[in-house]
Specification:
Elements (H helix, E strand, L loop, with lengths): L6 E5 L4 H12 L3 E6 L5 H7 L4 E4 L5 H15 L4 E4 L16 H27 L4 E6 L12 H24 L3 E7 L25 H14 L3 E3 L4 H12 L6
Parallel strand pairs: 1-2, 1-4, 2-3, 4-5, 5-6, 6-7
Helix pairs in contact: 1-6, 3-4, 4-5
Bound molecules: nicotinamide-adenine-dinucleotide (NAD).
The site of nicotinamide-adenine-dinucleotide has 33 residues, from α1, β2 and α4.
Length: about 250
């Protein structure tokens, strides 16, 4: 895809990977719409990306996601790329059978149903203006296991499946719209601040969000579905599958 003159929308674009995706796409000539639940981050988005549409958005509310899509098209005339990126860590460190219902619901509402709502609102608009591309920010949590973040890992596993299903459906129906699911390990962002139950100091280790955005752009150009961003990620995914198939024990 030639990004110049295209329109891109990014959820959770007020910080971290989403902000880097928005900046990268803008640098390549896209007009950009950003939605984020932290409205206080939007002025900085507008400052860093002149001409960006930046609006308050909680992806857990389907009506707000629908309005985000409507306003993007009203502002820029079309939309070609959507990055379903917003996510939170959710309950941490609790035994999963003791995590209260509200903890499960918020992380599922944001990480899983927020992506579903984003697809519902944007995919018909992408199909109306091909070629297009859907980006979904999952995580290495989609292909590995954890004792400490069961709800987060469950939602990220679901996103891998959704990305695969989406790509199969586009191919089956002959749509010129690609899908890329990002599978980053640690990235230096503010994700730790989204922990609901501990006072976490952010996420100081890992690669930069800009590096993840670079990988995304390359994946769009290559029409690559599964996008690892860290060295060794592929081996970790292979090791997990060996456990699943019984070739090794956990
Ligand atoms: N940082 C990492 O190490 C890492 C690794 C793998 C995957 N990820 C994924 O990357 C994505 C982006 O996270 P990040 O690391 O850039 O964190 P971040 O916290 O820096 O950025 C996430 C942004 O999403 C916004 N957001 C949170 N809930 C939202 C909601 N309900 N509606 C709209 N916006 C919302 C936040 O306000 C924030 O600005 C997430 O899906 C996360 O799971 C992060």
């Amino acid at each position: 895809m030639n990004f110049a003159g295209k329109v891109a929308a990014v959820t959770g674009g007020g910080s971290g990977i989403g902000l880097a995706l928005a900046e990268k796409l803008a640098a390549l000539g896209c007009r950009v719409a950003v939605g984020d639940v932290h409205a206080d981050r939007l002025p900085e988005v507008r400052r860093r990306i002149p001409g960006a549409l930046a609006m308050a958005l909680d992806v857990a509310d389907p009506a707000q996601v629908s309005e985000f899509a409507e306003r993007t098209v009203a502002e820029f005339g079309a939309v070609h790329v959507v990055c379903a990126n917003a996510g939170i860590i959710g309950p941490l460190g609790e035994r999963l059978w003791e995590v209260p219902d509200a903890g499960w619901r918020r992380v599922i509402d944001v990480n899983l149903l927020g992506v579903v709502s984003t697809l519902r609102a944007f995919v018909p608009r992408l199909l109306a203006n091909p070629p297009g591309h859907v980006g979904i920010t999952a995580s290495m949590a989609a292909v590995t296991t954890s004792a400490t973040m069961p709800a987060y890992y469950a939602t990220k596993h679901a996103l891998l499946s959704i990305a695969d299903s989406l790509q199969l459906q586009f191919a089956r129906d002959g749509h010129d719209v690609g899908v890329s699911v990002l599978l980053p390990a640690q990235v230096t962002t503010r994700l730790g601040e989204s922990l609901s139950d501990v006072d976490a100091p952010g996420n100081p280790r890992g690669i930069s969000p800009a590096e993840v955005a670079d990988r995304f752009v390359t994946a769009v150009r290559d029409r690559r579905l599964h996008v690892f961003t860290h060295p060794g990620s592929s081996a970790l995914a292979t090791a997990r599958m060996a456990q699943v198939t019984g070739e090794t024990t956990p």
